[in-house]
Amino acid sequence: MPKFETTRKVPFSARQMYDIVADVEAYPQFLPLCEDLKVESREVTGETTVVVATMRVGYKTITESFRTRVTLKPADPLIVVEYLDGPFRRLENRWRFVPTPEGSEVHFYIDYEFRSPMLGILMGAMFDKAFRRFSEAFEERARAIYGAPAAAQV
């Protein structure tokens, strides 16, 4: 029953960080363990977008795919990921973005459990390590997209 939660202060706006996390199609370019991601559907209702996607993750010779429903709420700003199917018994993931005078705070929460105890043993340590690096990977992506924040350029 691994669970991980972190809050990371970043020198980018809440909207900039939200946009980076909401761009799920770009995940294979920078996200640890993410080898591929295919968007199956995208439905916009008012200010909320719901994306159904399949992500393939891997480490060395082990690969697994899973489907999720990603609810994007830019007005909040909040991103909620719900597990649909794949190798997990459960997967719950939330991102929240809070503006601060220096940029924003990125709140990341994930709770997951593999169906197979063997897969949990094989992939669990790598998933835990990758999840701990997710917030950092998104900040690095923000630097690549937006450049160094104004305060850092002085």
Helix content: 25-40%
What structural category do the secondary elements indicate?
alpha+beta
Question: Which CATH first-tier class would you pick?
Answer: Alpha Beta
CATH fold group? Alpha-D-Glucose-1,6-Bisphosphate, Chain A, domain 4
List keywords for this structure.
about 150 residues; alpha+beta; Alpha-D-Glucose-1,6-Bisphosphate, Chain A, domain 4; 4 helices; about 30% helix
Short description:
The protein has 154 residues and is of the alpha+beta class.
Q: Describe it for me?
A:
It is a single chain. The chain is an alpha+beta fold and 154 residues long. The chain has one domain (3-147): START domain (Alpha-D-Glucose-1,6-Bisphosphate, Chain A, domain 4, 2-Layer Sandwich), CATH 3.30.530. It is 31% helix and 50% strand. It has 4 helices and 7 strands; from the N terminus they run E-H-H-E-E-E-E-E-E-H-H. It has helices at 14-22, 27-30, 117-146, 150-153, and strands at 3-10, 34-45, 48-59, 62-73, 78-85, 88-100, 103-114. Strands 1-7-6-5-4-3-2 form a 7-stranded antiparallel beta sheet. A hairpin with a 2-residue loop joins strand 6 and strand 7 (103-114). The chain is globular, with a radius of gyration of 16 Å. The termini are far apart. The mean pLDDT is 89.
